[in-house]
Amino acid sequence: MPTANTLNEWFAMAQGQYLLERELAFFDHSVTDIFGFNALQLGLPEFEFLRASRIPLRIVAGFDAGAQVKLNMSELAFECCSLDLVLLPHVLEFNAHPHQILREVERVLRPEGHLIISGFNPRSLWGIRRAACKKSGYPWCGSFIALPRIKDWLAL
Questions:
Q1: Residue 128 dihedral angles phi and psi, to the nearest 5°
Q2: What is the pLDDT of residue 1?
Q3: pTM for the full model?
Q4: Among 19, 56, 110, 153, which is 20 to 30 Å from 126 by CA?
């Protein structure tokens, strides 16, 4: 089985396409009824996770080609309390500083703003497969983060 060198390459494979379709449907359903003025998608600029959002200003930021705003995810170039919605599709598990990213998101998110995170669950079948097979390449090289751990980080 071929190994992907980037998450985008993995999303082009059969397993990745399966997951991507489900994630796009999840994001479409989740963002439809969130209102505000400014929405931000961090990472994966090739995919429109904000396509169903009613928020007028939708920005895709990151360091990959295709991002509308090029930035370091650990230092968001946005004003404090300026965003109504922030999406983190597979950002935390493939970044060396997930805590700093969450601190920055907390800084730029308005009170009562919304944060939507997607990632691989280490306690799922895919997480077990990753642990058992010791595969390299994407998405297996990521640091899968369990939901209780993310909740702890967000509580801080």
A1: -65, -40
A2: 52
A3: 0.91
A4: 153
Confidence of residue 106 (pLDDT cuts 50, 70, 90): very high
pLDDT band at 5 (very low <50, low <70, confident <90, very high): confident
* Euclidean distance between CA atoms 143 and 140, whole angstroms: 8
Structure-block tokens of residue 115: 């944060």
Please tell me the number of Cα atoms within 13 Å of 24 on its side-chain side. Answer: 12
69 SS3 class = strand
CB 3 within 8 A of CB 11: no
Q: Report the Cα 83 to chain-centroid distance in Å.
A: 16
Residues 107, 76 contacting (CB under 8 angstroms): yes
Work out the average pLDDT over 21-38. Answer: 97
Please list, in sequence order, all residues whose beta carbon lies within 8 angstroms of the beta carbon of residue 142, skipping any fewer than 6 positions away. 90, 93, 94, 119, 120
For tokens 């959002």, the residue is 53
Given this model, what pLDDT does residue 138 score? Answer: 84
Q: Which residue has the higher pLDDT, 81 or 123?
A: 81
Looking up tokens 């985008």 gives 8
Cβ partners under 8 Å of residue 46, min gap 6: 8, 64, 66
